[in-house]
Write a structure and sequence with these properties.
The structure holds two protein chains of two kinds. By secondary structure, chain A is mostly beta strands. Chain A has no helices and eleven strands. Chain A has strands spanning 5-7, 10-14, 19-24, 32-38, 45-50, 56-59, 62-67, 72-77, 86-93, 99-101, 105-110. In chain A, a hairpin with a 4-residue loop joins strand 7 and strand 8. The model of chain A has no long low-confidence stretch (mean pLDDT 94). By secondary structure, chain B is an all-beta fold. Chain B has no helices and eleven strands. In chain B, a hairpin with a 5-residue loop joins strand 4 and strand 5. Chain B starts with a strand and ends with a strand. The chains are: A mainly beta, B mainly beta. The interface between A and B is medium-sized, with 24 and 26 residues.
């Protein structure tokens, strides 16, 4: 059984704060690490797919880093806005196409 | 922008009844998936489907479950005799086949909430 863990489970920040959260995953048989942003009643939205150790990807104020040797990825949000409030999911991909998800980090940004 | 759609958004059924959950994947995608999330738990993989056959399935996907692509656009998940523990949000996803890639970015639908009474 693959173990993918995310921390913290939930996070409350003020508008303008920068924040980050962690995804840990098995360091063996690594193919890809996916980050999704999921707002209630909407489709989970793909943010990043990361494949190489040391990868760093950025989309606007959101960025992510990847360490496959130690089995972790960080997601950073710079200057959080209320519209960033969502659950952020990471998913680990080893052989095949099956994604193994973490439990998510629920972010709430207060105006 | 193309998107994965799912119907219905919410399905309520009696224990023992059959349900069919429907999905329309993105039109040029060739891989299709079902996942589910029981309330309070992680999203779990059920099955992947490619070239009109199951390519991977999890332990959850037992004989009660089946998938089908009945025409060129729909992808369905059937649960033959629902149990209380089948209550969950069911997500459909699809991906392209990327030549030379070990992974396929998966695009998710908004989910169908299944409630079994």
């Amino acid at each position: 059984i693959l173990n993918v863990e995310q921390s913290p489970q939930s996070l409350h920040v003020q508008e303008g704060d920068s924040t980050n959260f962690t995804c840990s995953f098995p360091s063996s048989n690594f193919y890809a690490l996916h980050w999704y942003r999921w707002e209630t009643a909407k489709s989970p939205e793909a943010l990043f797919v990361m494949t190489l150790n040391g990868d760093e990807k950025k989309k606007g104020r959101i960025s992510a880093t990847l360490n496959t040797k130690e089995g972790y990825s960080y997601l950073y949000i710079k200057g959080s806005q209320p519209e960033d409030s969502a659950t952020y999911l990471c998913a680990f991909n080893n052989a095949g196409n099956m994604l193994t998800f973490g439990g998510g980090t629920r972010l709430m940004v207060k105006p | 922008e193309p998107e994965v759609t799912q119907t219905p958004s919410h399905q309520v059924t009696q224990m023992g009844q059959e349900v069919i959950l429907r999905c329309v994947p993105i039109s040029n995608h060739l891989y299709f998936y079902w996942y589910r999330q029981i309330l309070g738990q992680k999203v779990e993989f059920l099955v992947s489907f490619y070239n009109n056959e199951i390519s991977e399935k999890s332990e959850i996907f037992d004989d009660q479950f089946s998938v089908e692509r009945p025409d060129g656009s729909n992808f369905t998940l059937k649960i033959r005799s629902t149990k209380l523990e089948d209550s969950a949000m069911y997500f459909c996803a699809s991906s392209e086949r990327l030549r030379g890639s070990f992974y396929n970015e998966q695009f998710f639908g908004p989910g169908t909430r299944l409630t079994v009474l």
